[in-house]
Every structure is written in C-alpha cells, then in structure tokens.
C-alpha cells in the first residue's frame, strides 16, 4: 500500500507545454502571460480588476497598503488562520486584534467582529477558511457604515461560491493564493482582485518598485521611456512562467472543484454514520471547494484527535492537524485573546486527504480507520 497524501496538485502535460512555450519565447519575467492570466482570472472571479503578485501573503500586504492601513490602526483578523493573515497586518505596522470564529464554518462573523471593534479599527481581514465561504454581507453591513475596510483573504477560496457568485466578488479587495496546497497552483503565486480602480492601479505600480512605466513596457520599446519612482515600492511580481501554468490551472478549476465536492460528499455521507465525528459542510449562503476537508473529533468519539492522526499514520495515510491558531505562536503571544471556539477547533479538528486524483479505494482506507476507531 502506498502513502496517501493529504493533498496533491493536479498538473499535467498541458502545464508542461505551456511552460516550454514561455521558455522558447525568451520572455520569462512578468509580461504578456501575466496580463492574460490577470484578465482570465478577473473574468472567472467576476472581478473588475485583477493584478498578479508573488503570493497571497504579498497580496494581503499590498491590499492593506492601498487601503491606507498603517501605524496606530487596528485590524481585526481571525487567529484561526494560516499565520500569513496576521503577518500582513504587522508588515504595515498596524496592530492585529483577534476575533473568534463560528464553530460551523470556522470563519469570522459580524458578531465576533463586533465584539472586538474599537475606535481604532480601520480594517477587518475575513478568511474563507479551508474554502468555506465567509458570510461577507453581514460583516460588510457592520463595517461599511463605520468606514472600516473589509479585505477578503481568499487564499483557499477559488471555486467556492457566495450567494451564487464566486467568493471575493462582493469584496472591495480580495487576495488569492496559488501555492500547491491551495485549489489551483502556479508553484508560488497570488492575485489581488478589487472593485476599485484607484487601488488596482496603485497596487499594480507598487508590486514593481512603484515604477511609473512597467518593466514589460520598457523592455518592449526600442528606446525605453524614462521611468520614475513615486514612492517606495516592492518586488512582488509574478513571472510569465508561473502565469502560463496559472492559465491552464484556471481552465481546470471547474473540474477540480466538481471532483472535490464529489469526494467531500462521499466523506460526509460515510462519516455521518460514525458517532462523535462532525464534518465541514456547505453553509446556507454558498458552496465550498473543500480545499481543506476538516473533521472535528468530539468527546463522543472514543479517541482523541491526536490518536486518530497516529492511527491514520499507521495506515500510511497522511492527515493533518486542523487549522492553526495564530495567537499560540510566539510573535503573537502578547496579543490579548479570548477565543474559545478557535481553541476548541484547533485542538480537536483534523484535515483528511482530499485531492483530484484520489480514488474511492483511497477514500475507503481513510474511512476504515475512522470506523475502526469508533469501536475502540
Ligand atoms: C495559504 C494561506 C495564505 C498564504 O498564501 P501564500 O500564497 O502561501 O502566501 C494566506 N492566508 C490563508 C488563509 C492561507 O491559507
């Protein structure tokens, strides 16, 4: 029996051909493929503007910069997220304030955000955790009248929907990830989508050193126009090598999500018969891409979460502890945090293998361990 991974990217001959073509063209840095990927991504996500960046982390950083967030500002974030969500707040010198999450979705809600808002709150970063769509409208109803910007961290969210539209479509600004652990991949990479033209054009400049003329435009001219640097920018560019892969991956997205939802439904059906286990599910307002299929091991189950993980490991099944809590990590240990749901989910959830190429037999191996465990 071979090792069953928790996640595998779905890549094939078309990605190899696309990269080969870029190498043959001689233009490997940010250029026409990045522009084409941005356009295709904006269309797929129903966004007005899209600009590619080097990762979701740099995308979140730029989103906060263009939203004008800085020193003296508080930004509400879930501790229940990958640490990059909070790190982006620190990069701009602002103060992260942790809000708890809803136990059904693992996401912030208007109530948990309202509980920690102060006069200094200038932004909230909501996360579509594990691909579960956040109830964005309720958070925006709270924040918009108070002049608080809502940034959506949709690192895990490509292919999930909210009220029938792609997640992120209803946010002023959204950041996406193309890391291989996410739903589609470019190796490393990210995207910002936004409804605001002014934010899009500033972020577009900032991602390449705040140059007034893009490198692509300068290099395609015989006599390059003189450029100027109007503020301190960054090198957060994506390459055409990555974008060529992204274009193929974006075409695969509907098929990837369809297969993941099929596998998730099979897990949900079979695990619902096991007393003491609770699985992630679609909320009433949308559909999940099931980027992370998490399961809570409740006290009604005879084994602890860590026992389940080691039994899975004995069957050569690589599962993972659930979503981390940022407030338990050293850089955030001094941030005040009363987060009972976050702590419960972090301690008691695990992420089961789920990827496009997974077979029914693979899934049966996972289910067998969970069913056996219930009898112990
Ligand atoms: C993975 C992830 C990130 C970071 O994405 P990168 O592209 O690796 O920088 C940020 N936020 C969340 C919620 C994530 O899951």
TrEMBL record:
Pfam families: DegT_DnrJ_EryC1
Active site residues of this protein: 182
Cofactor: pyridoxal 5'-phosphate
GO terms for biological process, alphabetical: polysaccharide biosynthetic process
Stored InterPro entries: DegT/StrS_aminotransferase, PyrdxlP-dep_Trfase, PyrdxlP-dep_Trfase_major, PyrdxlP-dep_Trfase_small
Record's keyword terms, sorted: Pyridoxal phosphate
A molecular-function term among this protein's GO annotations: pyridoxal phosphate binding
Gene3D superfamilies assigned to the protein according to its UniProt record, in alphabetical order: Aspartate Aminotransferase, domain 1 (3.90.1150.10), Type I PLP-dependent aspartate aminotransferase-like (Major domain) (3.40.640.10)
Keyword presence, Thylakoid: no
Highest rank taxon of the organism: Bacteria
Residues with PTM N6-(pyridoxal phosphate)lysine: 182
Signal peptide feature range: none
Family: Belongs to the DegT/DnrJ/EryC1 family.
Protein name as it appears in the record: dTDP-4-amino-4,6-dideoxygalactose transaminase
